[in-house]
TrEMBL record:
One of its GO terms (molecular function) is structural molecule activity. Pfam families: Flg_bb_rod (PF00460), Flg_bbr_C (PF06429), FlgK_D1 (PF22638). GO terms for biological process: bacterial-type flagellum assembly. Residues 7-37 form the Flagellar basal body rod protein N-terminal domain. It comes from Naasia lichenicola. The keyword Secreted applies. InterPro entries: Flag_bb_rod_N, Flg_bb/hook_C_dom, FlgK, FlgK_helical. Belongs to the flagella basal body rod proteins family. GO terms for cellular component: bacterial-type flagellum hook; extracellular region. Keywords: Bacterial flagellum, Cell projection, Cilium, Flagellum, Secreted. This is Flagellar hook-associated protein 1. It is found in: Bacterial flagellum; Secreted. The keyword Manganese does not apply.
Amino acid sequence: MSTFGGLHTAYSGLNAARAAIEVTGQNISNATTAGYTRQRVTQESVGATGAGASIFVSGTNIGTGVSITGVQRIDDQMVDQRLRSATASSNYWSVASGTMDTVEASLGEPSDTGLSATLGDFWASWQALSNNPTLESAGQSVISEATKLTAQIASGYQTAATNWSQARDTAVDTVARINTTAQQIAQLNTAIRVTVAGGGSANELIDQRATLIGSLSGMTGATVRNNTDSTVDVIVGGYTMVGSGAARQLAVVGAASLPNAAASPVHVEWADKPGTTVEIDGGSLAGSLTSLAPAAAGGTGGPFAEQAALYNSLATNLAAKVNAVHATGTNSTGATNLAFFSFSAGSPAATGLTLVPTTLAGIATGASGSGAANGSLADAIGKIGDAADGPDRVWASYVVNVGTQARNATTQATLTSATLTTATTAQSSQNAVDLDEETTNLITFQHAYQGAARMMTAIDEMLDVLINRTGLVGR
């Protein structure tokens, strides 16, 4: 290497140190920027350019400095994938837990105004009527308690239907965000590909894309496949939603109201391919779709549909039990085969349950042929509340089951949240900016710059001696 070549070596050192200082400054500036991944300059030594040895350093070929090969993001794809998976799981159970909490809160149990208390008051009014079967006020008490009971059952069903509709709206909003996010990822894919192909650094664009992918995964459980041109494919439900420069769209289809959920379950399809269901693997959207599922055998369907089905079953059970006994009795005029409850045509049982009698005269209180003062039948109806298969037991069993499901969902939400925290910490330790480390690096690169500058000064002095002073002896 010639003496002049030493200037190039020193200059390459200046460039490398300056680039490292600039990247360190970028890291420090973005220490609190959400989604930023720390960077570092990658470099490699440059070997001797020729095989000939220097006449001053016989037989030795000296390298010619350092070359900057790029600016690298310090990330780990496996750590990133674990974080995305943990986010999807945590979001799913957060929605599931919130759904069960909503259902449990709407039951209002235990309380003095819950359905258990209302059922108790209803049976108690029959017991009171059995003691005074000819007392109009006792009959009006039965009618009043029955009216309150039917209204509460209908209200419970309507609450479930309203919550179901709100969950569907949430699913629609989530899908809209998913579609927008997918489009943004596709646009960034294009920008990244063009930038990298032109030899530029796309690290900041990749950071933006990674943040969007994390959001998309949190909603859908999406996974990522990396391509050689620095673009990514985003996989949702086993199909590519985002390619190198294009994004597919999702659409929510199915029933618009709870009563129709069984006939047309709510699900997600590809907007460009109607009829093709997208199986969402996880995330908040999967949680919403689970809450919208129709009722199923064994009570394993969607929480809101199961709640509505319970109210329908309760109304049917209540009417069947009471009417079966009531029809065998007689009222004050001797009429028999009287119905106490009926159902409105075209309505769900819970909202269609209505009361037939409006006065004591329409209520059967005694056994057929026993006379107006006999209250044995009213007493028998009052004891339905104690039946093993009566509405009270049906309701109590459901309340306990909801409580169990709510606790289980809360436990899962807590566990997955802890897992998410661990995954977030792991990623932060990998790619977050450590100001202490960056400060240390800054000092190192400053000294490297100073050293390269000092080398350039030394070579300059050597050349000055060679050019301006050599050959002056004897003049």
